[in-house]
Prior knowledge:
By secondary structure, the protein is α+β, with helices and mostly antiparallel strands. It has nine helices and 26 strands. The chain folds into four domains: 12-41 and 276-405, endopeptidase fold (from Nostoc punctiforme), CATH 3.90.1720; 54-138, Histidine-containing Protein, Chain: A; 142-216, SH3 type barrels; 220-273, SH3 type barrels (Roll), CATH 2.30.30.
Amino acid sequence: MQLFLVVRNSQVSIASRRRHALGILLGIVAMFVAGANGAGAQSQEGAPPSNLGSLERIAKKIEPDLQGRPKRLTQYVNFFQSQLGNDARLFAFDVDARVDANGRVALEGYVEFPETRTGLEKFLHMLGFQDVDNRLQTLPANDVGDARFGLVKTTHTLSYDSPQQPRGVVTDCLLGEPLYVLREAGDFLLVHSGEGYLGYVAAADVLRVEAAAFENYATAPAVAMVANFETDGGLVLPEGAALKGVLGSGGLATIELPTGETVEIPADKCRPAGAPADDIEQIVATGRLLLGTPYHWGGKTTDGVDCSGLVQVSFAAVGLHLSRDANQQYYGGRLTATRWHRGRLRRGDTLYFAGEHGKIRHTAIYLGDDQFLHATMPRVTIGSFNPEDANYDERRDKSFVFAKRLW
């Protein structure tokens, strides 16, 4: 399991020095931008590697003659997932492949996105399996209905890699944690947890809700528990949980549980939770200084920058050091949006987009009001998810998969 840790120092003097350092950094970036626009600039565009022929290249890695063998179907599926899928701990992928009575390849199970579904079928075509009966379900499953969301209503509930025994623990979901429900499996639900991990949780531990109720709880002012507290009813509010609530007077905090019950706890058991507004604006300001910079694969300067380089440089301005590639950066933070629900998106969230065959290939910074800042060919620009906007980016709107929040 991969962890993303951010260490913050709350001392005023440290924060002041950081803001001062940021001012210097922004000045340096601005000078570079000005220099890049001058006569001596060496800025140039550099397109990302072409994906043309990628399926064929990958297929030849496992079958150089592109002659697939039916007895190796399971190996082909697993190989496709390892090469063109995403981490199975974060993206749903459960596929069974077999040759049916009619001699066709039958694909059954589920994947998260249509790109993965069609990509796997094309991969098998490349290996010579032309007759493919693709029965793969994309998620969320239709029978989930409108209650595609959940809030943990017990102290905690373990998430497993299977709804049946034997099974292993994936992660632990705490009271109040927002869940995205993908499918039902008996007494269990397949969900994305608060950090995006995929697993099965006991349905009895989850309050199923529709979008409006989900947003009402998950976007309200909140407190983070810094120590356990047991209510009169015996429910433990666990350290680490983020719960709807506010600090009040008299040394108390008022907490609203997912079930609607209100409890008062000592204020020293929690702290206010929320995004650091100053840091968000500094991240956005740093990124916007690169507007118009030529796209250059692998770049991180005003001579040229790529999508993950732009995000990396922007967050480094406030001391958050992210991994280099988009499909590595996705591991950090809390899940705030999916392709099918974007109601929790907030300024400063990182956005992730799928390529043709389903693998994460692109990232951006959300600015609010459907706008996002990203490095794309030919240069850094601002796109929109809103079809009514002049800068609407249909390609990115359709390929968006998830958003994360790094605080």
